[in-house]
Amino acid sequence: MLLKLLVTLVVLATATFALSESESASATTFPDPLPLTGPFFFVHDPSLVQRESDGKYFLFTTHDKAGIITATNLEGPWTEVGSILPNNSTIQLPGRDDIWAPDVSFHHDQYYAYYAVSTFGSQNSAIGLATSRTMEPGTWVDHGLVFNSTTGDAFNAIDPNLSIDEKGKPVLSFGSFWDDIFQLSLTDNLTAVTSAPIGVSFNSTLPNPEEGAFIWKHDEFYYLFISSGLCCGFNASALPPPGNEYKVFVGRSHSARGPFLDKDGVDMRQTGGTLVLGSHGNVYAPGGQVIFTDRKTGKDVFVYHYVPAIDSPAPFDDEFSSLGLNGIDWSSGWPVLTEL
Ligand SMILES: *[C@@H]1O[C@H](CO)[C@@H](O)[C@H](O)[C@H]1NC(C)=O
Ligand SMILES: *[C@@H]1O[C@H](CO)[C@@H](O)[C@H](O)[C@H]1NC(C)=O
Ligand SMILES: *[C@@H]1O[C@H](CO)[C@@H](O)[C@H](O)[C@H]1NC(C)=O
Ligand SMILES: *[C@@H]1O[C@H](CO)[C@@H](O)[C@H](O)[C@H]1NC(C)=O
Ligand SMILES: *[C@@H]1O[C@H](CO)[C@@H](O)[C@H](O)[C@H]1NC(C)=O
Ligand SMILES: *[C@@H]1O[C@H](CO)[C@@H](O)[C@H](O)[C@H]1NC(C)=O
Ligand SMILES: *[C@@H]1O[C@H](CO)[C@@H](O)[C@H](O)[C@H]1NC(C)=O
């Protein structure tokens, strides 16, 4: 136990040193996430939705068959109440009993949850859809396959995010590694695909580590956020080189379909991206990000998961992946995180 703590501290010191060397030019600092009350709960690839009828917060996570966690205050306590698909996905692929990255949004008087069926490192993947009128456990109806990928495709059909473009048409962003982030057009009833995938973001540096895309409209721009780097499976005594763990980049466009350019005008298809959030303090490998507007306060909230680097029974162990909540200052036209 002591030995482990010592090793962790040494690694932490090394990591901090390397970071301060490579990032001193930009002197980037990030605010800490909102402190939460109540017992620990696991979150990875969060989706956070406030119920239309009563403002209750519903948080959805990878694993636990797309776990549902609810609260009446953002600070918590958060309660694990069940799963979207307790009986597994109807999609007949490996991973149907452990679905990932549920993406929930409200359309046509119901909640749509796009989810991913896959296994780690595989392109034998699919995006599925379930719907519910209340988001409560036991109310989700599985509609099964929306889109899939197989070995040899340029893309991996996971990490879906639905958005509505400037013409009112649904567009599904998705992707993970290989040629990174793509978009598909959907039918107006949101259940089927009507186009081939089109690439919108690509990191040319191996291992081309972009995933977790989502699009958010603010004022006249559509912002494409991605998670870049390694999400999981960290070993506290052999962390990846600093900066190769998860972090969040953004680019923006006048169209939900891109092209998305970063602050320096670099196209995200050419490894562009402006850093929004990276590791700092207790926050390691933040990503899986989304935004929602809190109807209680009118504030936009930046929602993500991170692996606790210090404040954890097992620092850097992604089994303790936690919820991060911050505010957003949009005044520069680019999202800058604030305390909440
Ligand atoms: C879900 O999948 C698991 C693992 O394959 C299996 O044990 C379980 O019986 C399945 N549940 C249902 C309801 O089919
Ligand atoms: C997907 O994007 C929509 C808005 O475009 C947002 O409301 C929703 O939270 C996003 N969900 C995820 C999981 O990215
Ligand atoms: C899961 O399957 C059981 C047994 O078939 C059924 O009673 C239950 O309603 C199902 N749950 C959901 C959420 O579909
Ligand atoms: C996945 O897509 C391929 C064609 O791209 C198709 O042949 C295959 O049947 C699909 N798999 C599933 C599970 O739908
Ligand atoms: C959705 O719309 C498409 C055509 O736009 C149709 O083929 C399909 O049956 C519809 N699905 C549902 C569930 O209504
Ligand atoms: C973690 O890394 C150390 C140092 O490289 C290695 O000795 C150990 O076996 C690794 N642990 C696991 C679980 O892979
Ligand atoms: C591209 O990938 C490299 C290697 O993981 C990483 O260092 C870099 O930050 C990434 N850049 C973007 C914009 O994703």
Automatic annotation (TrEMBL):
Pathway: Glycan metabolism; L-arabinan degradation
Record flagged with keyword Ribonucleoprotein: no
EC number from the UniProt entry: 3.2.1.99
Protein's UniProt keywords contain Lipid biosynthesis: no
One MF annotation (Gene Ontology) recorded for this entry: arabinan endo-1,5-alpha-L-arabinosidase activity
Bilayer-crossing regions: none
Gene3D superfamilies: Glycosyl hydrolase domain, family 43
Residue(s) at site: Important for catalytic activity, responsible for pKa modulation of the active site Glu and correct orientation of both the proton donor and substrate: 159
Endpoints of the signal sequence: 1-18
Family: Belongs to the glycosyl hydrolase 43 family.
Name under which the protein is recorded: Arabinan endo-1,5-alpha-L-arabinosidase
